[in-house]
């Protein structure tokens, strides 16, 4: 029997069964489709050898007027600035104590007990101590006067931390450590850390959450998933932890200075004290707060929109001679998120989609209802690509290009039938413009952290799927010529990765595969025998002996067990691979597990002959 050529349709199609999808690719990991052909995605390396604390839920990059390149990075623990290879801690300070902290140590213990009246700190928060004197023994002034993570909170006036030296090694007190640190001890308390997990029905607009002072100890602001929004106002950074205050980092003050509350800016007037998102309008340069407190109250209104005076981050009081203002949306109960697109800002509430446009005085901004009954699954589940907004809702994908339309998806059931709806707010969307792709990263049903992604090629209209632990992502541009993503290691120390670099997983082998749906051997009425295959593959990379594994999987009936009948190793010198398989239904899997190996598939030809009837 002559060689049979098998060509599979571009993209992954998991709608329906494997047998009903004959002629399609059915499964994949770390594969993209380009010009209709599957190929391995690019690899990644660490952007910086330095790690950061916490899971990064937001990245933002920009360039200063002096061409300095910056990356803002917000985690559930800290707010960082990356310049070059160095991370700078710019986490805002929520409160300071002057001459008000005393210490106590116990012989043989590294635990230091600190007393500070109404400290409002939570376990895991950070405090920087200054002005302390030695306790008399090994707990010296140098040991005390540094930043500490609070180990436990005894009550509103007392907490503990673990003593360390300037190298980070634990220090144990001795019998001479009987002092209290002196009378001049100061403390700078950073904003309460947030949670790394989302709690449904708690916080983010539920009940009266956020309506009292969120800076107090043991509060729902600090026990809900910490999501940041970051944007640049010129060469400065504006930042907002969802449900918290808004902050400003001024570049002219240098990388070693912290972001400050907007209320502390010079000539600040009626600045919002709490918000769910902050965004800078691109052309008219207003700072806009979503889900913030109205003027004259500290109570958060999840449907309130306010904006600053044009080109003025400090002035939020509407006057006849400025452009500050605000209004309240009516459809929905909470603003989930907003995204810039061409000459408008899209605002998602929990039940509707609005368009916000700059219209000039006297109203400044106009907001129009686009549609009801459509929302977004999370505050970051949307992305603008070529002035088209792609977004994920609870059970489908959509696009907005003047109107809302459903996005046909060949992996919809695969995504939403194995989806952790308890961690929806972790979902984020991103763009990879180099390959005309938008992707959504999400948690599968058995995972509490992001472990999967789904990718749509908007030029070729194909879908792909895969596994990758990433918590945030930004496309190339500004501070990086390649996409950047924050990795999740399952620990407090994580790294920022530069993607589409080489073909490896940070120097290690990256496993990638693509697998077809079942296809009949012949017409499905006879057992067929495969004895050889002719591979068609282009190897791309630096490996001098790249390898692909071709696996032939077989079964006799659609509901029968699937078995790997035979495998063959294909290299860049393989002309023909000899295999042996006999069945009524077959599928082919192509996989690589070696380093420095990228590849692109063409068509595969099989030598198949009849081998008996049913």
Outline the secondary-structure elements:
Layout: E1 3-6, E2 9-12, E3 24-29, E4 31-34, E5 37-40, E6 44-46, E7 52-53, E8 56-63, E9 69-75, E10 79-83, E11 86-89, E12 93-97, E13 102-105, E14 111-115, E15 126-130, H1 141-144, E16 147-149, E17 152-155, E18 158-162, E19 186-190, H2 220-223, E20 228-233, E21 236-241, E22 247-249, E23 260-261, E24 277-280, E25 287-290, E26 304-307, E27 325-328, E28 335-341, E29 344-349, E30 352-360, E31 364-372, E32 382-385, E33 388-392, E34 397-400, E35 404-406, H3 412-416, E36 428-432, E37 437-442, E38 452-457, E39 462-467, E40 470-474, E41 484-487, E42 493-494, E43 496-499, E44 512-516, E45 519-520, E46 526-534, E47 537-540, E48 547-555, E49 563-571, E50 577-583, E51 585-592, E52 598-601, E53 604-613
Parallel strand pairs: 2-3
Antiparallel strand pairs: 1-53, 3-44, 4-5, 6-43, 7-42, 8-9, 9-10, 10-11, 12-19, 13-14, 14-18, 15-16, 15-19, 17-18, 20-21, 21-22, 22-23, 24-25, 25-26, 26-27, 28-29, 29-30, 30-31, 32-33, 33-34, 34-35, 36-37, 37-38, 38-39, 40-41, 41-43, 44-51, 45-51, 46-50, 46-53, 47-52, 48-49, 48-51
Q: What does this entry look like structurally?
A:
This protein is mostly beta strands. Among the domains are: 130 residues, Jelly Rolls (Sandwich); 93 residues, Elongation Factor Tu (Ef-tu), domain 3 (Beta Barrel), CATH 2.40.30.20; 167 residues, Hemopexin. Helix content is 2%, strand content 44%. It has three helices and 53 strands. The strands form 14 sheets. Strands 2, 3, 44, 45, 48, 49 and 51 form a seven-stranded mixed sheet that branches. Strands 1-53-46-50 form a four-stranded antiparallel sheet, with no helix packed on it. The longest helix is centred in the last third of the chain and has 5 residues. The protein is globular and about 95 Å long. The protein starts with a strand and ends with a strand.
